[in-house]
C-alpha cells in the first residue's frame, strides 16, 4: 500500500506504448487504411512487471537468423535486461522445455507436466495415417521447414538448441520456466501482472508458445512487445528487407502493445 503522502508518479514507470486501431468517423471511411498506429502513455509499477525472455538461444540451425538474433541480443536485450534489473523488474526466462531443464532455476514453481505436457486423449479422427502423412496422404508430407531436405530430427550439433545466449545467461536467483502454466504460477505467486516480451522468433515462439503473447493474453494479461528486441524467421523473398519481421510487428500491434527498448530503458532509469 502507498503511504498517505505518496503519489503514483513516485514509483511508476511511464512507458509510451503503441497499438493499431481504427481511426474512422463512420461507415463510409471505416476502411483498412484508417487502421493506423495509436499511442498511449502507460503507468507500470516495476515491482509488478516481468521481462519475459523467450527463446533467447545461443544456437540456431539457420545461420543468418542466429547471426541476427545474436546481434539483437547483445546490442538490444543486454542493456534492456540491465535496466530492468536495476528498476526492480523481474526477469523470467522462457527458453522452451528442453532448454529450461538444463537450468536448475527452472524447478521454482515447476509442475509435473511442465516439461512433458499431458497428451490430449486419443481420438479416431482424423485418421492416424492422415496425421502422420502416410499411405494415401503421403503427398501432403513437407520437407523440414528449417533444416536441409533429408534431415531427420536434430541429431547433429549444428542443428541443436542447447543454451540460453551467454550474454543474457540467467543468474542463480532468476526464474526459468518451461511452460505457460509455470509462468502463470510464478506470476501469481510474485504478484506480477505486466509482461514485457523480448526474444525470438517474432512470428513463431514469441506469438504461439504456451508462454507466448497470445496464450498469456488468453489468461487475462496485457503483453507488451519490445519491437526492436525481436525478429522473425525470414524467407528468400523477404530476407533483404526483413519484411516478415516488419509485418509481424504491425500485426502484433492489432492484438497487443509494443514499445521501443530505448523508451523502456528510459522508463526504468527514471523510476
Question: Please, could you describe this protein's structure?
Answer:
This protein is of the alpha/beta class. It has a single domain, classed as Isochorismatase-like (Rossmann fold, 3-Layer(aba) Sandwich). Helix content is 27%, strand content 17%. The protein contains eight helices and eight strands. The strands form two sheets. The chain has a six-stranded parallel sheet, sandwiched between helices. Strands 1-2 form a two-stranded antiparallel ribbon. Strand 7, helix 7 and strand 8 form a beta-alpha-beta unit. Helix 1 runs parallel beside helix 8. The N terminus is likely disordered.
Short description:
Helix content is 27%, strand content 17%.
| Structural class by SSE content | alpha/beta
Radius of gyration: 20 Å
Strand content: 15-25%
In CATH's first tier, which class applies?
A: Alpha Beta
State the domain count: 1
CATH fold name, please?
Rossmann fold
Strand tally: 8
**Inertia-based shape:** globular
Strand order of the largest sheet: 5-4-3-6-7-8
**What's the N-to-C terminus distance?**
17 Å
What's the helical proportion of residues?
25-40%
Mean pLDDT: 93
User: Which superfamily, in CATH terms, is the homologous superfamily?
Assistant: Isochorismatase-like
CATH architecture: 3-Layer(aba) Sandwich
Give the low-confidence spans: 1-8
Amino acid at each position: 500500500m502507498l503511504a498517505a503522502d505518496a503519489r503514483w508518479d513516485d514509483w511508476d514507470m511511464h512507458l509510451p506504448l503503441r497499438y493499431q486501431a481504427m481511426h474512422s468517423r463512420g461507415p463510409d471511411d471505416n476502411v483498412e487504411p484508417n487502421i493506423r498506429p495509436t499511442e498511449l502513455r502507460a503507468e507500470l509499477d516495476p515491482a509488478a512487471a516481468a521481462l519475459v525472455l523467450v527463446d533467447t538461444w545461443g544456437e540456431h540451425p539457420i545461420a543468418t537468423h542466429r547471426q541476427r538474433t545474436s546481434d539483437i541480443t547483445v546490442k538490444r536485450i543486454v542493456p534492456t535486461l540491465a535496466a530492468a534489473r536495476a528498476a526492480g523488474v523481474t526477469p523470467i526466462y522462457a527458453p522452451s522445455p528442453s532448454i529450461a531443464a538444463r537450468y536448475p532455476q527452472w524447478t521454482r514453481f515447476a509442475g509435473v507436466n511442465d516439461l512433458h505436457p499431458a497428451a490430449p486423449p486419443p481420438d479416431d479422427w482424423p485418421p492416424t495415417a492422415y496425421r502422420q502423412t502416410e499411405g494415401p496422404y503421403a503427398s501432403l508430407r513437407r520437407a523440414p521447414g528449417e533444416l536441409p531436405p533429408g534431415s531427420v530430427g536434430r541429431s547433429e550439433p549444428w542443428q541443436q538448441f542447447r543454451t540460453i545466449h551467454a550474454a543474457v545467461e540467467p543468474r542463480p536467483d532468476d526464474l526459468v520456466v518451461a511452460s505457460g502454466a509455470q509462468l502463470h504460477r510464478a506470476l501469481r505467486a510474485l504478484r506480477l501482472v505486466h509482461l514485457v516480451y523480448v526474444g525470438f522468433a517474432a512470428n513463431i515462439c514469441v506469438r504461439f508458445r504456451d508462454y507466448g503473447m497470445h496464450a498469456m493474453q488468453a489468461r487475462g494479461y496485457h503483453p507488451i512487445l519490445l519491437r526492436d528486441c525481436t525478429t522473425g524467421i525470414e524467407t528468400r523473398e523477404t530476407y533483404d528487407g526483413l519484411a516478415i519481421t516488419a509485418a509481424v510487428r504491425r500485426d502484433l500491434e492489432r492484438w497487443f502493445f509494443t514499445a521501443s527498448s530505448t523508451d523502456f530503458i528510459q522508463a526504468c532509469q527514471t523510476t
